Amino acid sequence: MRFFLALSAALTLSLSGCGDGRRAETKRTQPQAASQQPTHGDTVVEGSIGDATTLIPMLASDSASHSISGLIFNGLVKYDKDVRLTGDLAESWEVGQGGLQITFKLRRGVKWQDGSPFTARDVLFGFQTITDPKTPTAYAEDFRQVKKAEAIDDYTFRVTYEKPFAPALTSWGNLVVLPKHLLEGKDIAKSELGRNPVGTGPYRFREWISRDRVILEANPDYFEGRPYLDRYVIRVIPDLATMFLELKAGGLDLMGLTPIQYKRQTDDRFFQESYRKYRYLANAYTYLGYNLLEPKFRDKRVRQALSYAIDKEEIIKVVLLGLGVPATGPYKPGLWFYNPDVKKYPFDPAKAIALLKEAGWEDRDGDGILDKDGMPFEFTVVTNEGNPVRQRTAVVIQERLKKIGIRMKIRVIEWSAFINEFIDKKDFEATILGWTTGFEPDPYDIWHSSKTGKKELNFISFKNGEVDELLEKGRRTFDQEKRKEIYFRLQEILAEEQPYTFLYVPEALPIVHSRVYGIEPSPLGISYNFYRWYVPQGLQRYDRLALAP
Amino acid sequence: MASYLIRRILTLIPLFFGITLISFVVVHLAPGSPIDVLADLNPKMTAEAKQRLISYYGLDKPLHERYFQWLRRFVSLDFGVSFSPDRRPVIEKIRETLPITIIINALSLLLILLVAIPIGAYSASHPYSTFDKSLTLFVYVGFAIPTFWLALLALILFSVQLEWLPISGLKSLDYARLSLPGRMWDVTSHLILPVLLSAFGGLAGLSRYMRGSMLEVMRQEYITAARSKGLSEREVVYKHALRNALLPVVTVLGLSVPGLIGGSVIFEQIFAIPGMGRLFYSGVMSRDYPLVMGVLAIGAFLTLLGNLLADISYALVDPRIRRGGRG
Lengths: 549, 327
Description:
The complex is a heterodimer of chains A (549) and B (327). Chain A is of the alpha+beta class and 549 residues long. Helix content of chain A is 26%, strand content 21%. Chain A folds into three domains: 23-71 and 201-279 and 510-539, D-Maltodextrin-Binding Protein, domain 2, CATH 3.40.190.10; 74-192, Dipeptide-binding Protein, Domain 1 (Dipeptide-binding Protein, domain 1, Alpha-Beta Complex); 284-507, Roll (Dipeptide-binding Protein, domain 3). Chains A and B meet through strand 10, helix 6, helix 14 and helix 15 of A and helix 2, helix 3, helix 5, helix 7 and helix 12 of B.
């Protein structure tokens, strides 16, 4: 879970690729290619606003690095089309000792791209590296819960946990498997591997021109079969307008659109013939969070009233041009742990005014602003610079609250100062921010009362005994049905308490050149099966030679 | 002349280190730190893990200690290692990007000179004529139009509609397959719009300077003398007046180096050119201190060099300065 800075960030091709495939654009479905057999060849060129930083997954923190290294490296497990965990480098696994122990049976015959065999020792080495205090990684935490890790034999890897830890299994994705024979005894942060990676994945590294492009080519020995597309090129174009022009000129095959590009700029004949658009719910939500240390936000009725006073549909219509859905809690709709039946807050200003009156807020002095004990109802919302969607959301909310007599001010602050001076120090009244979410429901760090310290993520200081219990139970429970019950209840409480007004879940809006076939949208997004994409013979555009450096 | 030079260079050295000191302090005073991108609001990041990263990057040491550490390395021309996850030497990153930025800036500066000097000279010799007024209008339009907007319009016209020029980057995807002339044209065609547009924005300043300086010179007595000798107006203007009028322009040129480097950020961003401006910008955004300091040091060096060269050429063309130096 991480903040999302811009809706229009590059698509991620990694394990955590996002989306709800059922909402994929159906207006113009892909022509049935009965005669089109998947064939090898051609290249897909993707646009990215940022360059990769390193191609070792555990060291990277940006989406470009993860989307490229996600094609080069594999994990032990991955999500399948329906967001169920399935084997990747692991053939199967067993959870034993009441959830304390996981034993992975690894695939045999898998080779690193330099020809060396892949074994359990590589997994153990990766585990030792990610938990090594000298490795500058942001992902060590899940692996620190492991008491013991051992390579039983070449194809059996076993981990033992201190306490049962339900998110454990998902953590064995592609962050942690490293080629031991290339890294042993070296400082991983300064090793060649970050610029010249060797993995086990469908694509292998070919060339990286800094700040310009990265070129990958098909791995002919990939254990799930050679990918169809010969090459994958990611071009760095930092300006979104330029990137869009490059798409228009045919220089790109794949990019993420902004809502305005999706709605207004890609509907002419040229785009209809040359490209296909997709839309699916992103793994993220935006919220208005109340600092619960503020006296006026301590009253649940006030928070509920604000939620009634804000028209979420209007925000989605105005700010996202309709490309999103109202959020009802901390999860996106469509996943197994999403509870669709929680208390909702449809736009109802009359109810908002009534609730506020109940809580003692009324316009007694006739100045148009509600007051209580002589104090007018005023507060300031802080949000970060560089995110116009959030800023526009703030303006729409401001207008709605004004109509029921609440004066809301907006302050937009540069990111670092915003986090360090306002959020970390809890020096704010309310904030508009977003969380990115994943396919694992545990939001312990955001809602547990033990996480309300400075620089911790429960910065709104939400404390609720039952929520604490649920969160603790949730991460110790393996049975999916029981977990579902736990997180359903969590969502009910959050909906009732409204510590945030959950605003919306935006949509990811990728566009892909229409010569590319084999795309099957799923809740994971479109890029999870990239290695099965292909371009039929007659439609191929780049020949192999054309790109040879 | 030699002593003048030596004195100038000696004053530049403390100035340079003063610049690095101030830059270092300002860069570190800005809120945020290099670990933010990993650590900000990341649930997987414990306080302990954060502390480990802080000491990994040496951020737990006091500021003055870090500055002297940086300085010690710097005097032996070691720019340190970037804080970005690739952990590459800063000097390597600068070496990759600096030539591109210098080439684009040199070309656009050359273009500015070639156009601005004739415009300024002509305007001054025909002040307040219709031509002078329309040239003035033209250069001010160039100055006033937001360049990023004009750049996008130019891209839409020349690259999307007419398909004459490529849109972004420096080399096409099939660059490696092209013949040598093909490669040369490929790079040239990628450079045309960035160079033209950055020159367009810079025309106004220099041509106005030129015009002002020229008008000033035209009032001098030696111009009257030249005219009274019976020289043709052409000779008066382009031989006697122009040379003298160029003097202040030389100084302005030397001073325009930092502006050009700053302007590179925008152009490299729009045209996706892998130059030093973008390197610097991303370094600032991720608080990559060694990289930011490296680029600032190079920028300061180039600026001072620009000033020095301006001074030297000034001294070369103006004997009064040389003699003043001796006396």
